[in-house]
Amino acid sequence: MSNVLIIGAGGRMGGWFFRYFLYLRDQYKDHSKTTKKTTSNNYMNLDKIFLVDSKKIDFVDSLMCKNVYSSQQVSDFVRQSNIIVFCTPSDITIGLFRKLIKLIEPGTIIIEVSSIKNKIHKKLRKYYLNQRNFRLISIHPMFGPGALVFSNNNIILHVPIESFSTSNGTKLVKRIFPIFRVIKVDNATDHDSLVSIVISLIYFINLVFSRMLIDTLNKYDAKSSKVNLKFLKQISGSSYKVQSMLSESILTDDPSLFSGLFLNSPISISTIRKYGKLYNDLSAHLMGTNKDYLENYVTGVKKEIASQIDLDESYRKLYKLLSKD
Predict the structure, then answer these.
(1) How many domains does the chain have?
(2) pLDDT tens sequence across 302-318
(3) Scanning 39, 85, 240, 261, which has the fewest C-beta atoms within 10 Å of its C-beta?
């Protein structure tokens, strides 16, 4: 049996990992009751779950779960843990790892879940190469803390820190997350390049979009006008509803995530700057009321996207999503 330690368990993502490992433990027990070959099922045999955060983790007391323990001191549980998950910002993870490395038992699986990999990979690889008596796993859950812990739609990226046996590393990730789709990204640079598009740029665009809404609505007298964010949803079509839903959901994330995405990744900064150049270029042509340029621009973008994506299918999915409300 294995014991799991979650560092940063008081945060939203730390809370997700707690719920996940609790679910995983229950699944093993349920499968053990229905099959004699318990060692062949897909779920790890977990025993104790340790939760650590600098603040008190209030939800633990209310759950009354067996073999779940919490503390504000990481050192209370390190030696008893077979799996340690760092759900902390990169700089904190690096600092804690440096302090705890001598306490980690041989064979322990260390998991870090940061959104940006280049910096943390360089630091952790150095410690790993000096030690080599534990397994170091770098993953990126491509979902937020609101995701269901048992959904097979969840995707986890595995970005190997070890320069050898990467296939074994991916197998280990699949062993820990048996019902999720695990995708290996070859290295930290490739990972951060992809994240700069699928996360950092999206967060940046929607942050500015939200700021624009606030500044626009501030022009109306709040006491005498019914124009507010709820009113905009009432009068809007599908495009605004989806966009506003996305921008509002992003704002539920901790500000430290924005800092990590924007400030800790030179690749993300470069991507955002390129977006700014494209924006300025198109804006300049709009200011010149260049109709031909705009229509050619739209046609060109549509043609290139349509060569890889079924635009009509995307349109149908959009309305299918909205019809569920």
Answers:
(1) 2
(2) 999 999 999 999 999 88
(3) 39
